[in-house]
Structure to design on (520 residues):
């Protein structure tokens, strides 16, 4: 609530009492989105530092401030020497205005997404903007007082904390007369708070005029300047911890959800395979009844010696039954491979989901993670570091770029681009993937020293290899996986053509597991 009207209406008179008669001695900026105003009465100084970034707009009131010798620029030159008369809040708004005896005005607009400072040396003079891209702020004017809300309704500037406080005290289901009483009680507390509260709520450090969430520290309600001086440095110091904790939580929740969903899908597929007649089973029946199948038949009915029930088997008129059986035996072998891979995938993905949930629990229970240094050490130990390298790689590399668990996956765009990827960019220890026996993109997983590529990363890269190939719409796609050192290009080969000297094959469902927009 440090930018809310109900706090600003208490801060403004406190600033007027403190600054009346002070003159502006300095006005400059030395960091992005920061405006510093230094005032003095000849014997004492007062510093006002406006944080005008969209992430955390605030008026900071440091007791002392040292201007840097470099990277500092003077602003609003006509503000120098101006003498403060009053500081006032705009009615029902997140704006505070400093009035000077000459008629000059300095306005601090503390809107969350678009904060700004606006200076007018005279009431009729053109506005000078700190954030010059926000041109509409040149015409910003205070709005007249709004009509009072209907009985029991929340006033527009109440903000989220008082509204939440009301709802936690039974506002929503209450009858109209009780709602009116609750609102009036809260408004009375906001207009003359007994305390200011530094609180932790939903992973954020906030200043509140009401007891809410986890109270870190209560402060006297008659000194808003002291409250602001205590709150802003604390909030800025804790912001990095709060943001990184939130990002880690979202990452782990996403991993747990993705792994659980993948395990469930694999289990469904395995169940379907277990409850349908296998290819090998059908091939056995064809071979056992080969002498009874007439030439050119399109189907044959046999007794299934596994179930002792009649079974109708479809055949191809132009294909000999022996060849049909051979094809089915080959498919049966692939089916066995698929079942084994599905079983392994279920175990692996369930373990990943459990690990992610354990990490989430550690975030809430380990005391050392309540400190930024401890959190970053823990994050690095568990391979949860952010990977800004993806954006950098996208600007440097002419391929499709994906990031997965800290590994970079590169995908060729066409035949010539495949050659460039495999022959020029890929390292001998990188993993190289390609959809087997069809044309498609070369896929490379960048090697990381001392870190074997996790199977989920191989699986995702194989899905990409299938997706960017002629097998894109197949149910299952065999994909070659091999270190790049076993891939060579024969002399005279066409663009994109290579020979693989050693390989293993994985079966995957073609797709883009990064459909949410992680491709760069």
């Amino acid at each position: 609530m440090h930018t809310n009207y109900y706090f600003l209406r208490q801060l403004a008179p406190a600033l007027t009492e403190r600054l009346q008669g002070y003159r502006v001695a300095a006005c400059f900026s030395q960091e992005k989105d920061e405006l510093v105003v230094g005032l003095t009465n000849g014997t004492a100084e007062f510093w006002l530092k406006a944080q005008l970034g969209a992430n955390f707009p605030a008026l900071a009131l440091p007791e002392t401030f040292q201007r840097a010798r470099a990277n500092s620029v003077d602003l609003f030159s006509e503000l120098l020497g101006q003498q403060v008369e009053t500081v006032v809040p705009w009615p029902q708004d997140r704006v505070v205005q400093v009035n000077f005896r000459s008629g000059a005005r300095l306005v601090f607009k503390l809107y969350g997404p678009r904060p700004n400072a606006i200076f007018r040396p005279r009431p009729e003079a053109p506005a000078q903007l700190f954030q010059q891209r926000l041109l509409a702020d040149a015409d910003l004017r205070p709005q007249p007082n709004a009509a009072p809300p209907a009985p029991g309704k929340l006033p527009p500037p109440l903000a989220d904390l008082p509204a939440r406080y009301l709802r936690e005290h039974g506002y929503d289901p209450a009858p109209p007369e009780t709602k009116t009483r609750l609102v009036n009680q809260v408004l009375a507390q906001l207009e003359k708070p007994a305390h200011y509260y530094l609180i932790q709520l939903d992973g954020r450090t906030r200043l509140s005029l009401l007891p809410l969430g986890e109270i870190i520290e209560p402060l006297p309600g008659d000194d808003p300047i002291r409250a602001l001086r205590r709150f802003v440095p604390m909030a800025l110091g804790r912001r990095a911890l709060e943001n990184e904790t939130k990002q880690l939580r979202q990452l782990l929740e996403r991993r747990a959800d993705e792994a659980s969903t993948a395990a469930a899908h694999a289990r469904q597929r395995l169940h379907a395979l277990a409850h349908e007649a296998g290819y090998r089973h059908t091939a056995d029946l064809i071979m056992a009844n080969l002498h009874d199948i007439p030439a050119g038949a399109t189907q044959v009915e046999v007794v299934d010696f596994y179930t002792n029930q009649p079974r109708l088997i479809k055949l191809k008129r132009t294909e000999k039954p022996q060849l049909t059986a051979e094809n089915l035996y080959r498919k049966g072998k692939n089916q066995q491979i698929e079942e084994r891979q599905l079983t392994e995938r279920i175990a692996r993905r369930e373990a990943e989901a459990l690990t992610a949930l354990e990490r989430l629990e550690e975030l809430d229970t380990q005391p050392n993670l309540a400190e930024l240094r401890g959190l970053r050490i823990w994050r690095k130990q568990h391979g949860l570091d952010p990977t800004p390298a993806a954006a950098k790689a996208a600007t440097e590399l002419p391929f499709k770029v994906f990031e997965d668990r800290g590994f970079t996956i590169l995908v060729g765009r066409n035949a010539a681009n495949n050659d460039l990827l495999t022959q020029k960019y890929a390292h001998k220890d990188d993993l190289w993937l390609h959809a087997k026996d069809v044309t498609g993109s070369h896929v490379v997983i960048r090697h990381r020293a001392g870190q074997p590529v996790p199977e989920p990363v191989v699986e995702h890269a194989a899905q990409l290899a299938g997706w960017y190939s002629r097998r894109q719409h197949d149910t299952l796609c065999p994909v070659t996986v091999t270190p790049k050192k076993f891939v060579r290009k024969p002399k005279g080969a066409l663009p994109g053509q290579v020979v693989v000297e050693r390989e293993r094959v994985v079966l995957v469902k073609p797709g883009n597991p990064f459909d949410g927009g992680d491709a760069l």
Q: What stands out?
A: Residues 5-139 form a domain with the ibrinogen binding protein from staphylococcus aureus fold fold (CATH 2.30.310.10). The two ends are 39 Å apart (CA to CA).
